[in-house]
Every structure is written in structure tokens, then in C-alpha cells.
Specification:
This protein has helices spanning 40-49, 85-93, 102-114, 121-141, 155-165, 180-188, 205-214, 252-262, 293-307; strands at residues 6-11, 14-19, 24-27, 30-34, 53-56, 60-64, 70-74, 170-174, 194-199, 220-224, 238-244, 266-274, 311-316, 320-325. Strand 11, helix 8 and strand 12 form a beta-alpha-beta unit. It has nine helices and 14 strands. It has two domains: 6-120, no CATH class; 154-325, 3-Layer(aba) Sandwich (Rossmann fold), CATH 3.40.50.150.
């Protein structure tokens, strides 16, 4: 699409010229396009004029043209920018043949979030993280889990349960990704004086650190680290160590290497959570192995053998959850 192309669009009951590139953000084979509060007929005309064939799903208008990136046009309001976007991507864009790999999934996410503020994509990620955290805080503050019809954020009940199981004054969240659990736990559990999130990718940490600073969470740190590295011990010891929906991203051999690195860091409790999937591991999420309750409990017994004692407790929660005490 021509970089100078523009179209008269209706926004907030007024008409003004809006340049396409002011609402578009490219990432990989996709361009996210923010069509919130504009005249969709004008947008359709603009895209069709540029030679794109259009397809529509419940949440997206898809534009495809040979030799060009796929347009992912959405109308999400700022309040709707949340973790539930991933469900929509998986349900609608995979069946449309748009997403076929974990790289596609990540690129679509980045394109849509970046389209909110194309000149400052970090602002979109900040909004995304703040919306997610606020919803998780509402859940954790409720006397019972609220109904969430039509949504499938498995981490909501998981974070609620894990926060109840954290013990002691220090927490390590291994494979923390965007750092939601460290931020939630640091704010809601005053007994925690040291909270550390580690992940092999440091890219999300700029947003996580900014949110921690904004909320005055001086006891939270985010550290880039490889869970397979023998140098992981340098991070120190923690009363509680969590590894939530991470082990399925490793093959079985590497999974035990990760656990062998984490067990010496754990002084009181290790909390493991994994999804239960039928058929094949979900490749879109980068999963490499399947878990059942029996397999998870066998992992727990392996951990106890390495510790030469202790106890473990299993429960159903967003798949399976295992609490292992020394």
C-alpha cells in the first residue's frame, strides 16, 4: 500500500483525514491495522482500492494480496487490549490459515499491539500489561473466582491459586515471560521482601520494570537467565520457586536439566504447573511435550528423590499443579 495513501475516515462523529500509516504497524509477514472508532466502510474501500482481497472473522478483517504482508485489521478499544487477544488469534486466525507457527503467533501479537501507537509500540505493550494486571488484581481480590463467559485465560485461576501457595519471604518465578506473577505477588503479599522473575528473553522486561517502578514495587527484580545454564545458581536461594506452564516448552531431557538447576535454589517449596492437552502438543505456543496427572506426579517424585525427602501435593488447576515441599 502506498506510503502516502490517505482516506477520509469518520472518527468520533467528525470527519478528518487519517493517514493509513498512522494506524498500521508491520511485523514479519503481517501488518496490524487499528480501525477502532473509524468508519469501516471507508477502511474497506481503502484496502480494496489497494488491491487486497478481504475476509472477515468475528474480530478481524483480513486483507491479502499476492506478494504483500497480510493486513490484520481490528477494532479493539483500549480497554479490550488484554491477554484474551491470544484466544481470538488462535481461534480465528489459525482456522483462516493466517497463523501456522509459533513465530506467526508472536508476529501477529506484535503487529496488533504495535498498531495501537505505531510511533511508540512500547506504549501499546504497556497498556496491554496494565489491563492484564488490573484484571488479575480484581480476580485475586474477589472472594470467589468471577464468571468469565466466553473467555479462556487459564492463568487467572492459576495465579489466584499460586499466590495462596507461596510461602516465605522470597520468590523466584522461573520462565516469567512478561512478569505478571512477580508483579502480582509483590503487590499482594507483603511478607515477600525479594521477588525475582527470570526468563531467557529480556525484551518484555522494560515494560515490567516500568510498571514495578510506577507501582512502587522496589522488592521486584527481572533478570535475563537461561534455565538450562549451570550458572543459574548465581541468582541465589528462594523460599518459593515457581515454574508455571514452562516445562512443556522443553523436551523431556531438558526438562529434567531445568529442574535439576531449580531444586538447589529452592529452600522450602517448588510449585510446578503444566497444561493438559489432548492429541499433540500445541505447536503454536511452542509446546514440545504432553503432560498427564501421572506424568506430572512422576516428575514430582523425581524431585523428591533429588532432595532425598519431602512431600508433594497435586491438584487440578489450569491443567495440573504440583506443590513440592522440602
Amino acid at each position: 500500500m502506498s506510503k502516502h495513501r490517505e482516506q477520509r475516515l469518520t472518527t468520533h462523529n467528525r470527519t478528518r483525514r487519517v493517514r493509513f500509516q498512522e494506524r498500521a504497524f508491520p511485523c514479519g509477514p503481517f501488518i496490524g491495522v487499528n480501525a477502532c472508532r473509524v468508519n469501516m466502510e471507508a477502511f474497506r474501500a481503502l484496502v480494496t482500492e489497494a488491491g487486497y482481497a478481504l475476509r472477515e472473522t468475528p474480530h478481524f478483517l483480513l486483507g491479502q494480496r499476492e506478494g504483500a504482508p497480510t493486513l490484520i485489521i481490528h477494532r479493539f478499544t483500549p480497554e479490550e487490549i488484554d491477554r484474551w487477544l491470544g484466544d481470538y488469534f488462535l481461534a480465528e486466525l489459525r482456522s483462516a490459515g493466517i497463523i501456522t507457527t509459533s513465530e506467526d503467533f508472536a508476529s501477529v501479537f506484535a503487529a496488533v499491539i504495535g498498531s495501537l501507537f505505531p510511533r511508540d509500540p512500547g506504549r501499546g505493550w504497556h497498556l496491554f500489561s496494565m489491563n492484564a494486571l488490573q484484571r488479575y488484581h480484581r480476580l485475586l481480590a474477589a472472594d470467589s473466582p468471577p464468571d468469565m463467559p466466553g473467555q479462556n485465560d487459564i492463568f487467572a485461576p492459576l495465579y489466584r491459586r499460586v499466590c495462596a501457595l507461596i510461602t516465605g519471604s522470597s520468590l523466584l518465578d522461573a520462565g516469567c515471560l512478561s512478569g505478571y506473577l512477580p508483579l502480582l505477588a509483590a503487590e499482594r503479599l507483603p511478607a515477600l521482601t525479594r521477588v525475582v522473575g527470570v526468563d531467557i528473553s529480556a525484551e518484555p522486561f522494560a515494560i515490567s520494570r516500568a510498571i514495578a517502578e510506577e507501582r512502587g514495587l522496589t522488592n521486584v527484580q527481572f533478570v535475563q537467565a537461561d534455565l538450562l545454564s549451570p550458572d543459574l545458581y548465581a541468582i541465589g536461594h528462594f523460599d518459593t520457586v515457581t515454574i508455571l506452564h514452562v516445562l512443556e516448552h522443553f523436551c523431556e531431557m531438558d526438562m529434567y536439566r531445568v529442574l535439576a538447576n531449580l531444586l538447589p535454589l529452592t529452600t522450602r517449596r517448588l510449585i510446578i504447573a503444566v497444561p493438559f492437552e489432548a492429541g499433540e502438543p500445541e505447536s503454536i505456543y511452542g509446546h514440545l511435550q504432553l503432560f498427564t496427572r501421572e506424568k506430572l506426579e512422576s516428575v514430582g517424585r523425581w524431585c523428591l528423590a533429588r532432595w532425598q525427602g519431602g512431600t508433594m501435593h497435586y491438584e487440578d488447576c489450569a491443567g495440573g499443579l504440583l506443590s513440592i515441599d522440602r
